Fold:
Amino acid sequence: MEITFSRGHLRPWQLDDAPSLVAQANNRRIWRNLRDGFPHPYTLADADRWLVVANKFDPPQNFAIVLHGAAVGGIGLLTKEDVYRRSAEVGYWLGEEYWGQGVMSQALPAFVDYAFERFDVCRLYAGIFAWNPASGRVLEKAGFQCEARHRSAITKDGATTDELIYALVRDKT
Structure:
């Protein structure tokens, strides 16, 4: 399974991605914008743990963002249950050296198309930290709209901030 976009492609994580994953993910500026389950410092043991669980879903829900043959970030989907079963949460991160180059603005729409095609969902959403407006711009470029501001909902790195909820809804019969 591979999802292409003009600058690279998305593919399921592979065990040999561990060195590249550590090289990109071991960055405090990345960690600061992600949930606490994303460790810092990011070690080879952390990469090995992730790579064991990353591909446990069929169809795949977690992908490496690959540029020039190396995994430089990740993008994934968390499906919901019960009354939320037709909604899914999208999450993503990218190595800092690739920020501001339009990589995520290309990868996210490709992933969104895949998610709507392969999963029985009509709504994708993402929650971002208010101090990360660049992530909001990425979501807006992919067609997401800001639906809500959850005030003082996130505490990370000793600071509490608002969470902005972005969503993209597609009608599905």
